[in-house]
Write a structure and sequence with these properties.
The complex is a heterodimer.
Chain A (H helix, E strand, L loop, with lengths): L3 H22 L7 H12 L2 H11 L3 H29 L9
Helix pairs in contact in A: 2-4, 3-4
Chain B lengths: L2 H27 L3 H25 L6 H20 L5 H30 L5 H29 L12 H21 L3 H19 L7 H23 L2 H24 L4 H6 L4 H9 L7 E2 L2 H9 L3 E6 L1 H6 L2 H13 L3 E6 L9 H8 L7 E3 H4 L8 E5 L8 H4 L18 E6 L19 E5 L2 H14 L1
Parallel strand pairs in B: 1-7, 2-3, 2-5, 3-4, 5-6, 6-7
The chains are: A mainly alpha, B alpha/beta.
């Protein structure tokens, strides 16, 4: 069933989140743009939530396999993204700072 | 729904709000290098909260497959995060973008199969968002892999232009719209697979005509797509967590894309249409360069540097290729010990991804406050004795200011030509990516130091030590 109310709520969340993202991310200095990219890459791994929902609800074997693949792909982003971002940020230091 | 289930659902949604706040605060803390590491940890915590909330709030029927996915995915992610060289960071980000897009597309497929199996009537908004998810996800997947291939040198980095590519692209777009309409009217796996196939082909065709040095723009854009694909998946599943986090990533990628295109004085359209430098490169190659340049040996370069009062290093992609960041920092330390002022000038599009040079120099232990961006440093070149260009080219070309016929006219450049003298490290006389000869080479104040950047810098350092 087409649920107009749910769609409007989802769109509201979407639009507001874009604005918040814009405000927050324009303040990231150029020196941190690579960690910003790898870090936001990790955040896009949020599709893990969707992957869990699909895998969890699946009855047939096809659905379960697709769910597992999606979980695996998303986990690469989550684990790899956060770890590599941390590895980079660890290296940034000020003058005179050890 | 039982009261118990409703309670769990509310709990999950409450936890999603906590996760959303943590993501936003985490990104906010990326606003300064001092707090950035903590910010990244907060985002990771947010992810953990979101995942746990999802598991608690939903009946997850079978665990075996999910656990398998978690273990394999985490292992691959952790291994690549540890092993990757800082110079290869653009490739890693490109390929991770691709996996993110693929995950969204696969989720859409799984959801569609489930809905069809259940024999449910699929509402229009669900079928449209399923298509959005698979199309954006599919384009992101193959586009990212081509970008990876170009960065890695597996796919030719020069723009590849198919003769009838516009016809093909239009045909694919029509096919995509048609299959979407088909899926909305009559939900079938076939329509879904056609749309998916078209999206995969489109990803390849969109990125293949784009040249290697335009990859910063492409990666930023694909980064944005991977977020948008995630948000689209959120619409499919009616899940706010996905919509919020996906939008944050989408916004981030779009902002970076805009910064990159602005720094090249080009429109996104111009980058995406590809073929930059091809036509111009052909004509520039036609007229043989006969003007003389002055070349210099490492020992003379060492003398110039040792007797200077101020030095600015200008790193570019060549620095990454030669892996010369540690050698440059060593030379800079040596000069600083002699009381010489040393700074680094970083152009926004230097390297193969936004901020690439900053990460390389951070790896070599250069403090981030010594790295100056375009606006900060450009006024200082005229007060500087020696500018040392290490593997940068187009971003130093003064004809971007004056020559209206140049393809890079209007691009903001580093004012290297205003320094008292310039040492230009380069392998040979080849033109930059834009296909135009760099006027900087032919100035009287410019000394060309030919050879591998790492090798040259090492020799200079040895000479400076002996002085």
């Amino acid at each position: 069933m087409f649920d107009a109310e749910a769609l409007i709520i989802a769109l509201t969340v979407f639009v507001l989140a874009i604005f918040i993202g814009y405000e927050v991310i324009t303040k990231v200095p150029p020196t941190l743009h690579t960690p910003l990219m790898s870090g936001s890459n990790a955040i896009s791994g949020i599709v893990i939530v969707g992957a869990l929902l699909v895998a969890g609800k699946a009855d047939g074997i096809t659905g379960q396999i697709l769910g597992a693949i999606a979980v695996g792909l998303a986990m690469i982003n989550v684990v790899g993204g956060f770890m590599v971002t941390d590895r980079m940020l660890k290296m940034f230091r000020r003058s005179g700072q050890k | 729904m039982s009261t118990d289930a409703i309670f769990h659902m509310n709990l999950t949604n409450a936890a999603y709000i906590v996760a959303a706040i943590l993501f936003i605060v985490g990104l906010k803390q990326l606003g300064s290098p001092a707090t950035a590491r903590n910010g990244n940890r907060m985002s990771a915590l947010a992810m953990l909260v979101a995942v746990l909330a999802t598991i608690v709030g939903n009946d997850i029927a079978s665990w075996e497959w999910i656990l398998g996915g978690v273990i394999v995915g985490s292992a691959i992610g952790a291994y690549s995060a540890r092993k990757v060289e800082m110079t290869s960071m653009p490739q890693l980000v490109a390929i991770f973008n691709g996996f993110g897009g693929a995950a969204s597309a696969v989720i859409a497929a799984g959801e569609l199969i489930r809905l069809i199996d259940e024999g449910a009537v699929i509402a229009e908004d669900v079928s449209i968002t399923i298509m959005a998810s698979v199309i954006v996800g599919g384009v992101t997947l193959t586009g990212s892999f081509i970008a990876y291939g170009k960065l890695q040198g597996i796919v030719p980095t020069r723009p590849l232009l198919l003769p009838i590519r516009n016809v093909i692209n239009v045909a694919l777009l029509i096919g995509m719209i048609a299959s979407t309409v088909w899926l909305v009217v009559d939900p079938s796996i076939t329509a879904f697979l056609i749309a998916g196939g078209i999206a995969l082909a489109l990803g390849i065709l969109v990125v293949i005509p784009i040249g290697g040095a335009d990859m910063p723009v492409v990666i930023a854009l694909l980064n944005s797509y991977s977020g948008i694909a995630g948000a689209a998946t959120g619409f499919v599943l009616g899940n706010n967590m996905l919509i919020i986090a996906g939008s944050l990533v989408g916004a981030s990628g779009l902002i970076l894309t805009r910064i990159m295109t602005k720094a090249m004085n080009r429109s996104l359209m111009n980058v995406m249409l590809g073929g930059f430098g091809v036509e111009d490169g052909a004509s520039a190659g036609g007229e043989e360069e006969t003007r003389p340049v002055t070349s210099i040996q490492p020992d003379d370069a060492a003398t110039m540097l040792a007797y200077a009062q101020s030095v600015i290093f200008v790193p570019g992609y060549g620095l990454a290729v030669a892996q010369a960041q540690h050698q440059v920092r060593e030379l800079a330390d040596l000069l600083k010990a002699k009381g010489i002022s040393v700074k680094y000038a970083i152009h926004p599009v230097a390297g193969r991804m936004p901020g690439h040079m900053n990460v390389l120099l951070a790896e070599a232990n250069v403090p981030y406050d010594e790295l100056k961006d375009l606006d900060e440093i450009n006024g200082e070149f005229q007060r500087t004795d020696v500018a040392v260009v290490v593997g940068a080219n187009d971003v130093t070309n003064p004809s971007a200011r004056t020559d209206t016929s140049s393809p890079i006219y209007g691009m903001p450049i580093l004012n290297v030509d205003q320094a008292a003298s310039v040492i230009m490290m380069k392998r040979g006389m080849s033109a930059g990516f834009a296909g135009v000869q760099n006027e900087l080479f032919f100035l009287d104040k410019t000394q060309m130091l030919f050879g591998d950047a790492k090798d040259s810098v090492e020799k200079i350092t040895a000479e400076v030590k002996d002085l």
